Amino acid sequence: MNTPLLSLQGITACYGNITALHGVSLDVPAGQIVTLIGANGAGKSTLMMTIFGNPRARDGRIHFDGRDITDMPTHEIARLGLAQSPEGRRIFGRMTVEENLRMGAEFAGNRDYERELAHVTAIFPRLRERLHQRGGTLSGGEQQMLAIGRAIMSRPKLLLLDEPSLGLAPLVVKQIFEVIADLNAREGLTVFLVEQNAFHALRLAHRAYVMVNGAITLSGTGQELLASPEVRAAYLEGGRH
């Protein structure tokens, strides 16, 4: 078996005296879409932030592309080829779409801005139409496109997506997931996806994990978890949006 692009081994993370992650281990193989599903408050976003060092893992190790990044500063991690589209989008509302995208390229040290801008606006033509518009005036779906676009401006080896469907209309959710699938299929982009929308996420995933109260309780292929009675009862009944 090939060494995974991202590997978490026994990760424990805390906020003060509260333990948020309990010995989490998972692998993200290169070229695959791996999804982590779970209820709100399960610890999914904490795991995403721990990969980038905020909070720091109290126990366990995180390896990316053959390197131990557990104690590495966040900005150095980003320059290794990880990029994140965080929960809640967190774009720069007072900056234009183009300025937001430029920030994504420059933060990761990618200086070929024009080429990456052409790449991102081909993926999201709506952003090309809005280049000089302030980010804060975009619709929710457009802001999510901008957050993902900003992340891929750095041409990452691994794209981390935290709740990309949150608060979006069903049609926009479908478009976002189609883009994720296309980036993986056409460009071989490795994706680690954290989602509450289990139905869409599991249909997309090569491999999937379920998190409950900061611990991994189930794992398998996306199709295996889609068919799991336990997963269907907890996350899928009435959830096909």
Question: Could you characterize what this model shows?
Answer:
The chain has 241 residues and is α/β, with parallel strands linked by helices. It folds into two domains: 1-81 and 157-241, P-loop containing nucleotide triphosphate hydrolases (Rossmann fold), CATH 3.40.50.300; 91-155, no CATH class. It is 38% helix and 27% strand. It has helices spanning 44-51, 74-78, 97-107, 113-123, 125-129, 140-152, 170-187, 198-204, 222-227, 229-236; strands at 6-15, 18-28, 33-37, 57-64, 67-68, 82-85, 158-162, 190-195, 207-212, 215-221. The radius of gyration is 17 Å and the shape is globular. 42% of the residues are buried. The model has no long low-confidence stretch (mean pLDDT 91).
Q: Which class of the largest domain in CATH terms?
A: Alpha Beta
Calculate the terminal CA-CA distance, rounded to whole Å: 36 Å
Task: Provide the domain count.
Answer: 2
Please tell me the overall pLDDT: 91
- Main sheet record: 6 strands, mixed
SSE class: alpha/beta
So, the CATH homologous superfamily of the largest domain?
Answer: P-loop containing nucleotide triphosphate hydrolases
How many E-type strands?
A: 10
Shape: globular
Could you give the order of strands across the largest sheet? 6-7-8-3-9-10
**Gyration radius, to the nearest Å?**
17 Å
Number of helices: 10
Low-confidence stretches: none
Protein name: ATP-binding cassette domain-containing protein
GO biological process, one term: L-amino acid transport
InterPro entries: AAA+_ATPase, ABC_branched_ATPase_LivF/BraG, ABC_transporter-like_ATP-bd, ABC_transporter-like_CS, BCAA_Transport_ATP-bd_LivF, P-loop_NTPase
Domain ABC transporter: 6-238
